[in-house]
Amino acid sequence: MPPSISYNLVSKHRKELMGIAIIWIFLYHSKIFFPDGFLYHPLRLLVSTGFGGVDMFFFLSGFGLVRHMMTRYSNPFHFYKRRFFVIYPAYFIATSLFFTIDFIINGKTTLRDILLSITTIGFWLDNSSLYWFIPSIFSLYIVYPLFFRYYLKYQLKLIFLASATAFILSIILISNNNDHFTSFLTRIPIFLIGSHVSYNSFNSSQFLTKQTVACNIAAFAFSFGMLLILMFNHFNIAGYGLEYYLFAIGTPPLCLFASIMLDIVPPPLLFLLSCCGALSLEIYLVHKQIVFRLGEMLLKSSMLNQTSAKTFNYGHYLEYLAYFIISICTAYLLQNIANILRTYISQPADAVTSGHAPTKQIH
């Protein structure tokens, strides 16, 4: 292990880490079948724990927000504007396309469903699980400037209070047979941990001590070791969101150690992961709800057919590879359309502020 280890490596490889996260999520949503056998256990574990990619996104999001708050966005209006233009145009287009496809397939789309989803209110009022990550992260963005203001004063005390509140609330809801918000509430701790780790690495140029590195290794081994034991002993770890809390412990060291490995991977692989990271939002928006659904509709014997999916053949895996390539291409197209919409939406506000149309779009 290199002698100079710092969480600043996470900032250096943030885009590549997002690429790893979205590929992991893609594998999880794909539900790729692997035959029984000891040799396939690592692959089965990799796919079945793909929800951990979402924890990586929450961690990296909290990690990145601190950097922005410390260097750019002292004005909350600028913060909200940035967050809105980065996410919403692509979300609006993908949601509109989803409901168009849904209407073609089922013919049951209602204006109410469309409005609730486009405004993200549906997740909170109507138990809609469509793109749950977007309303969840938006809600964290809304309170983040206020949180960061008090975080500078209380730091770990505030993180512990907010995380404990989210934990207690999730237990209460699950105990009352309402687990709809579990995925969101159980990710609040890792989002806040990402902010804390980033703040400390931003304000210190010191490399991690051997003791700190050892603590990271222990946290990594504990969280993923427990996850492995519980999953392969068929313990219902999803009952109270236990799997998410295990990832809250293991995600920071996972990102750290992955960043160390990314320093030595071949440039072509680094480039591929960087491209996936740059398109991670768009891939998330299109791969499951659009690309997979269209594939299921057009290819009746595709990988989404459970009968054919549970047989070992190379064509099965080639189909998944094709779906991933299609998802990347579709995501790239979505990103470019969103950039056009983003520029169009931002022009009036910028023109009023500066007195003339902007010459540079928001990135």
Kindly describe this structure:
There is one protein chain. With 363 residues, the protein is mostly helical. The chain has one domain (8-354). Helices cover 75% and strands 0% of the residues. It has 17 helices and no strands. The protein has helices at 8-12, 14-30, 41-48, 52-71, 76-106, 111-118, 122-125, 133-154, 156-175, 182-185, 188-202, 210-232, 242-262, 267-278, 280-298, 306-309, 314-354. Helix 4 crosses helix 8 (133-154). It is globular, with a radius of gyration of 21 Å.
Total E-strand runs = 0
Tertiary shape = globular
The share of residues in helices is over 70%
How many separate helices? 17
Structural class: mainly alpha
Count up the domains. Answer: 1
Instruction: State the order of secondary-structure elements, H for helix, E for strand.
Output: HHHHHHHHHHHHHHHHH
Keywords:
363 residues, mainly alpha, globular
Write a brief caption for the model.
By secondary structure, the protein is an all-alpha fold. It has one domain. Helices cover 75% and strands 0% of the residues.
What's the helix and strand layout?
Blueprint: H1 8-12, H2 14-30, H3 41-48, H4 52-71, H5 76-106, H6 111-118, H7 122-125, H8 133-154, H9 156-175, H10 182-185, H11 188-202, H12 210-232, H13 242-262, H14 267-278, H15 280-298, H16 306-309, H17 314-354
Helix pairs in contact: 2-4, 2-14, 2-15, 4-8, 4-11, 4-13, 5-8, 5-15, 5-17, 8-9, 9-11, 11-13, 12-13, 15-17
